[in-house]
Amino acid sequence: MLSVPLPPRGVLLAAGTTGVDLAIAHFLSNRLIQSLLCIFGVSVIVFALSWLTGDPVSLILPPDTPPEAADRFRQELGLDRPIYLQYLDFAWSALQGDFGRSLVQGDEAMRLVAERLPASLKLAAYTLLFSLLLGVPTGILAAVKRGTLYDQASRALAFIGQAVPNFYLGIILIMFVSVRWRWLPSMGNPNDVQGMILPAITLGVYLAAETMRMLRSSLLEVLGLQFVTTARGKGVAERGVIWKHALRNAGIPVITVLGLQISTLLGRSIVVEVVFAYPGMGQLAVNAVQSRDIFVVQAYVLVVSMIVLTSNLLVDVTYGLLDPRIRYG
Q: 40 — phi, psi (to 5°)?
């Protein structure tokens, strides 16, 4: 029998590593192309906003402007050209971060949004921290103590947390925690930890309830699989079975929910920022919509779209880190 010499172990590892690297590169390139297509679609919608709200010139100039002056101003802005040429100008300016100046405040629209962006991201970080600290332990205990009074109570509270509107919960917290008990300030402040608590709780209750329900359901499914039974049969402690074996596999659907909820989180933060007078992008967007400040609205929509696309990409990459069985392809 002929024997074929095998390549050294290092060569096999290098080949396998190269294959994984190529798969990751292929995955990232596909996701990047999809993200660029999404950004293109969003830019078209954002550009259409300037026409759905009426003539942009009528928003910029005073109502008593003579028609000749309005036509001259429209020609200076290039609004008399074909619509596709106007979109190309808009897209090129947007790539450079130029969305024009605010019709109300006079500053650059992107600059106004960028100034509010850190406050909104800080609120989102506090909200995610609160939802994880509340939802993860509650979901684990509900799965471990399935069918007990604790399990039933936690599921009932999760149902209530998903049913109560954010604005109503925020008003209730202000009435009792701020006005009656005077424990925390009623206005949100990104520079004060106490000023972040009530907005983060109001915004994070729904996400914590969703995390708890998803983690409980996923953990119960994983605890019934064969490898968990094998680990218990080998004498592994119940705590080790949950934390080292079951929780890692059960966490993948939870991360999926968290990634998908980021867009919902940014949308819900608009209401919360208005209720608590929080100086974030949401309150800026509401004021811009009320005053028909279209350039600020365009900058806000594109910035939020970029954040959502980036978060979805990070969620996809995290899959492979949590479960080696998942391959990028």
A: -60, -45
